[in-house]
């Protein structure tokens, strides 16, 4: 029934390769099916003005899609002189999702910026960015702890995200682009490793949905997050 031939509750193949760039304090390439995102984490000894002097750390994110990450070339946003609304919305989502898993007191007064660059898109780029972004963040924090700049681990739980939706009348896990573009209901579920919810973005895309269907999608999301967290842990422990 699914274009990919997957079962309703089957994730695409997930791989996370760490240490893919030379200079970033933390980096990984996450591949979820044909969606590939480069995630890098940069540590800076500064924080935004609104928390300066508070002793709190800050985690933020930037997101972008390369011109040929999609089937036709997209114009670089830099050439337009500003970011599009979708880009701004997604990078804010990534930042606040990652902060949900951080003890900002333990991090200390420093900022970590997670950059997520979509190399190839086939649905679920924001979810892959959050999942891979946490791996890059984990590797950067590990360096801070190794040098003694941070004593207590500020990452309280892994953070990962997965899409679920209703495609051809059936609840499905981890939508690729052919499903995403045709789904009657589309949702993004961001969770901690213990399955506590951080954020749910869920909307009707041509069909409404019931409470029972929402619960089915939540169950699928929990299954997907469990698999993603296992992949995250394997990547950072390798």
TrEMBL record:
Its EC number is 2.7.7.56. One of its GO terms (biological process) is rRNA catabolic process. SUPFAM superfamilies: Ribonuclease PH domain 2-like, Ribosomal protein S5 domain 2-like. InterPro entries: ExoRNase_PH_dom1, ExoRNase_PH_dom2, ExoRNase_PH_dom2_sf, PNPase/RNase_PH_dom_sf, Ribosomal_Su5_D2-typ_SF, RNase_PH, RNase_PH_bac-type, RNase_PH_CS. It catalyses: tRNA(n+1) + phosphate = tRNA(n) + a ribonucleoside 5'-diphosphate. Keywords: Nucleotidyltransferase, RNA-binding, rRNA processing, Transferase, tRNA processing, tRNA-binding. Residues 10-140, 158-224 form the Exoribonuclease phosphorolytic domain. Coiled coil: none annotated. It comes from the Bacteria. It is an enzyme of class 2 (transferase). Pfam families: RNase_PH, RNase_PH_C. GO terms for molecular function: 3'-5'-RNA exonuclease activity; tRNA binding; tRNA nucleotidyltransferase activity. Phosphate binds at residues 86, 124-126. Belongs to the RNase PH family. Homohexameric ring arranged as a trimer of dimers. Phosphorolytic 3'-5' exoribonuclease that plays an important role in tRNA 3'-end maturation. Removes nucleotide residues following the 3'-CCA terminus of tRNAs; can also add nucleotides to the ends of RNA molecules by using nucleoside diphosphates as substrates, but this may not be physiologically important. Probably plays a role in initiation of 16S rRNA degradation (leading to ribosome degradation) during starvation. This is Ribonuclease PH. It comes from Thalassovita gelatinovora. The lineage of its organism: Bacteria, Pseudomonadati, Pseudomonadota, Alphaproteobacteria, Rhodobacterales. The gene is rph.
């Amino acid at each position: 029934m699914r274009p990919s031939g997957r079962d309703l509750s089957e994730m695409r193949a997930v791989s996370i390769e760490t240490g893919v760039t030379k200079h970033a304090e933390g980096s990984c390439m996450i591949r979820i099916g044909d969606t590939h995102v480069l995630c890098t984490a940069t540590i800076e000894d500064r924080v935004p003005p609104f928390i300066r002097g508070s002793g709190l750390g800050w985690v933020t994110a930037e997101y972008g899609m390369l011109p040929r990450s999609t089937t036709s070339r997209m114009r670089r946003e830099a050439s337009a002189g500003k970011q599009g609304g979708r880009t701004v919305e997604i990078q804010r989502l990534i930042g606040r999702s990652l902060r949900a898993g951080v003890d900002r007191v333990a991090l200390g007064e420093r900022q970590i910026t997670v950059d997520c660059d979509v190399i190839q898109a086939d649905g679920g780029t924001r979810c892959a960015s959050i999942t891979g972004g946490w791996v890059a963040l984990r590797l950067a924090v590990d360096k801070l702890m190794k040098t003694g700049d941070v004593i207590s681990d500020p990452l309280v739980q892994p953070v990962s995200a997965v899409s679920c939706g209703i495609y051809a009348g059936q609840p499905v896990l981890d939508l690729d682009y052919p499903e995403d573009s045709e789904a009657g209901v589309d949702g993004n579920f961001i969770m901690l490793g213990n399955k506590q919810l951080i954020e749910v973005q869920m909307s009707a895309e041509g069909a409404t949905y019931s409470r029972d269907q929402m619960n089915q999608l939540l169950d699928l999301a929990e299954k997907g997050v469990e698999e993603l967290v296992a992949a995250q842990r394997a990547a950072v422990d390798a």
